[in-house]
Specification:
15 helices, alpha/beta, D-Maltodextrin-Binding Protein, domain 2, 2 domains
Length: 368
Amino acid sequence: MAKQPWRLYTSVLLIAATLGLTYAPIPGAQRQVIVVSGSELQEPLQILTQQFEAQNPNIQITLKTQGSLDMVNRFIDEQNDFQPTVLIPANGALLKTLETRWQAQNKTPLFYGAPQAIAKTRLVAIAWSDRGKALFPDGQFSWARLEKAMSAGSWGSFGGSASWGSFDFAMTDPTRSNSGRLTLGLWLESKLNQTQLSGADLSTPKAQALIGLVKRSVYQPARSSDILLQEFVARGANEADVATDYESVALYRWNQSKVSQSQPYQIYDISPTVETIATAAVVQRNVDEGTAKAAQQFLAFVTQPEPQAVLVQHGFRPINPAVQIESVPNSPWRLGIPGAKAKPSATIIEAPSLETLQEIGRLWERAQ
């Protein structure tokens, strides 16, 4: 006997409803992943978060920004008003520091799986064009020239125009930001003619005098790398002449300097310099396995070619070898930025040890 039409329609509707319940997102089942990163990663991660959530509607990514050293300290001391899922400091070595501190207090593992590299960059210097020509007449960055200008205090006493006023150097706070500590570490190695600083080196009068000079010369050091460049551009020449920061930030903020100031800044290679690798880790504290899996899914997405291209557009060098920085559309290395080099000749060296960097931070706090 043939099925009545209304019964057929009812059966179809029941099947459709059943399939809908099976495959539709379950209310309340959305996973929230809180990602904490340095400010230099904030803007590319916002773009990647939108792309990832469009493909994974059951996962919500919430971004938080902290200086790399703040990130480590706030996590271990439980000073956040949120529960981090993923930590991405500017340097993977900071995760080792965090893990060491954690294991000294806890018996449980800190991370789900091994930390994962996301992108890399290096420390460079920047200067407004006319300031750079006066400070580095041969076109090469020099810690010694920087120190002499800082000691002179004013441009009129150091080969520049007296109308430029005081010599103003900018860097991040070495008690809160990784780039600030790396700046002082490289500077001290050059000053003391050392290839690797030790605690004994930092106790010398030369080392302590240099840190004191820099601290007296830097007005309100920024708490993070991207904030430093935003302030550098906003203040302009006469209030911020020279700075050290990550190449990624210097490249990405260059267009902003070109628009808001009468002259864009110049990028200078520091040689030797330190390469830093932004590295992500999924933490275990108060993070269930389902949320951890969602976080790992996000990190796997970030290292794919298209997301890596987004990071390149923001001045980072990719981790994925399939991505070539000069081939990426809108790559800053294709914009003719003064001093930008896809293949720089600067020597890459290891950063000072974590213990040495920590001692540098303590010396900065004590310096007068």
